[in-house]
Every structure is written in C-alpha cells, then in structure tokens.
Amino acid sequence: MTEVETLCLACGLCCDGSLFGRVPLAPDDARTHLRVIASGASFEQPCSALVGGACRVYTTRPRACRAFTCKLYERHIREGGPLETRLAVVRRARSLLAAARPGEDVSELRDLLDREFARA
Predict the structure, then answer these.
(1) Cα–Cα distance between 110 and 35 in angstroms, integer?
(2) Do residues 73 and 8 make contact, with C-beta atoms less than 8 angstroms apart?
C-alpha cells in the first residue's frame, strides 16, 4: 500500500459524513454495501461501507469517491514529507469532531476542514 493510500484509509472524513451528506452514483457503480437513496442517484453518508474507520470497498468504490481528492492528500502527493505529519492533522480533526457540541464555537474545526479536507 502506498503512503497516500495509507493516509486516505486512515482518514475517512469524506466517508463518515463529516464533509458530505450524499455522494452521487454513476450508472455503472457497484452498490453493494451502500445505502442508496430511492432514486438510485446517490448514497447516504456516513457510508455504510466504512467499517472501523476504513473503506471495505476501497478498490471498487464508486466513481465519485475515486475522483475526490482532499487538500491534505493532494499536498502529500505534491510535497511529500513525513506521513506522520499528515496523520496528525487527521487525528486533530477527529478530536475536534468528537468534542463538537451543538451551540459551541466550532470555528477551529470548520477552518481545519476547509483548509485540509475540502476538495483539492
């Protein structure tokens, strides 16, 4: 497994509902393990193929999932450097997500998600 695959599989924020509510499906996408909405045009997040924080259909994931690249992933490809530095960003995001409560200031979390995990 490559470093970027390790990073992607260690993160899962694009799969757990933190970034998206629904993901579009292409007509030829496999639908196994996905909670497909009635129209069949998309599936709900968190993704039901995300198990223990890792995608169990990673090699056959839908086209939209394969096409998505977050800024953190793209930066690692472009700049390299220690994988641990990128994984620390993932851990910080997960920590902030776990601590978020309704009505509290979530600006650090929002800024981190926009800066590191938005579409590259």
Answers:
(1) 27
(2) yes
Q: Which residues of 22-61 are buried (b: 16+ CB within 10 A; e: fewer)?
A: ebebeeebeeebbeeeeeeebbebebbbbeeeebebbeeb
Domain segments of the chain as ranges: 3-117
Coil/strand/helix, residue 48: coil
Helix (H, G, I), strand (E, B) or coil at 115: helix
Under DSSP, the state recorded for 105 is -
Residue 93, both tokens: 């995001």
Q: Residue 44's Cα: distance from chain center in Å?
A: 13
Q: How far is CA 42 from the centre of its chain?
A: 16
Tell me if the pTM is above 0.85: yes
CA distances from 49 to 36, 76, 100, 114 (A): 12, 25, 24, 24
**What is the per-residue pLDDT across 103-116, written as a single tens digit (0 to 9) for each?**
999 999 999 999 99
